[in-house]
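Narrative of accomplishments. A recurring question from our advisory board has been how the design workflow behaves on a single, concrete structure rather than in aggregate. To address it, we present the structure tokens for one chain from the evaluation set, followed by the sequence designed for it. No filtering or post-editing was applied between the two.
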């Protein structure tokens, strides 16, 4: 079973359902990728900061070697970490990440966050995380415009077939559209019924920028933040979501994912469970427009994936 695709503004096709690799433990990453490919997954969403790119690449290589899939059938995403925003660092770190994956190109390469941190040499610590070599959270000097122009070099050199951005707000996107030589193909954002961000979605769709939603299950993805997540019901336990699941003979996760994909977004849920892998990609049902609107009405502007929630005093979403 393979997911439908979304056509990007450069003509490339991106699967509408993929596997997110955040929090995927290194010791199971290769096997999880391999199993997901057997289940029909073709989109894999990784990042330097996840610290598992070598192992994920091993899973891809094994699947290709065993004839389960060709490289051309896969859509591999990775991301530029904050510590490498200086324009002269962008192409070299992309090449390192490709080497870690064992790939010649990424299908999509994103700016992970619109924030520059000081450079940390990979020989000192990799992935560097939010801290500098001295353990401080030190902002860098690269502007988002200079970093994006370096991303355009990644695209022009064929290191990535598509480029994009992640965790950008509407103002940054409007500004980017004024200076970009190559329009971003994708914006990746936290998106779930408690954080719909509909005006941002509308802006991107109007300008031909596809959206990938992460953390589609809302607080379920952030149980370590229970003081914040505990303010609202878990979406898997919400009466509206449970009622829709019962109506359509699906599980709650499928309802949340279909709410996004039916509205034109791609999703990248994470799972290491074979049964959940199968169900997350099995979204062959449609809810009514009224039901989609009901789910959207749960919006509370509640963001979980923000640096201050992890004790990092860099309020990029303030």
């Amino acid at each position: 079973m393979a997911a439908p695709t979304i056509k990007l503004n450069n003509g490339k096709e991106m699967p509408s359902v993929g596997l997110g690799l955040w929090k995927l433990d290194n010791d199971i990453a290769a096997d999880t990728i391999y199993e997901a490919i057997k289940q029909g997954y073709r989109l894999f969403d990784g990042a330097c900061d996840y610290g598992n790119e070598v192992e994920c690449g091993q899973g891809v290589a094994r699947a290709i070697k065993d004839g389960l899939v060709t490289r051309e059938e896969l859509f591999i995403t990775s991301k530029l970490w904050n510590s490498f925003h200086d324009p002269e660092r962008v192409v070299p770190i992309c090449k390192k990440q490709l080497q870690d994956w064992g790939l010649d190109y990424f299908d999509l390469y994103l700016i992970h966050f619109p924030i520059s941190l000081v450079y940390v040499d990979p020989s000192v610590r990799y992935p560097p995380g939010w801290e500098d070599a001295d353990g401080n959270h030190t902002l860098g000097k690269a502007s988002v415009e200079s970093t994006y122009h370096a991303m355009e070099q990644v695209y022009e050199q064929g290191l990535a077939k598509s480029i994009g951005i992640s965790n950008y707000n509407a103002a940054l996107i409007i500004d980017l559209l004024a200076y970009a030589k190559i329009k971003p193909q994708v914006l990746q954002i936290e998106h779930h019924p408690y954080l719909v961000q509909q005006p941002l979605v509308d802006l991107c769709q109007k300008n031909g920028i596809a959206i990938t939603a992460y953390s589609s299950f809302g607080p379920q993805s952030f149980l370590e933040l229970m003081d914040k997540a505990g303010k609202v019901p878990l979406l898997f336990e919400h009466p509206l979501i449970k009622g829709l699941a019962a109506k359509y003979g699906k599980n709650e996760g499928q309802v949340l994912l279909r709410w996004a994909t039916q509205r034109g977004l791609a999703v990248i849920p994470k799972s290491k469970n074979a049964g959940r892998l199968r169900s997350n990609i099995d979204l062959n049902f449609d809810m009514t427009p009224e039901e989609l609107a009901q789910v959207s009405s749960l919006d509370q502007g509640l963001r979980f994936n923000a640096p201050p929630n992890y004790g990092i005093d860099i309020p990029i979403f303030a």
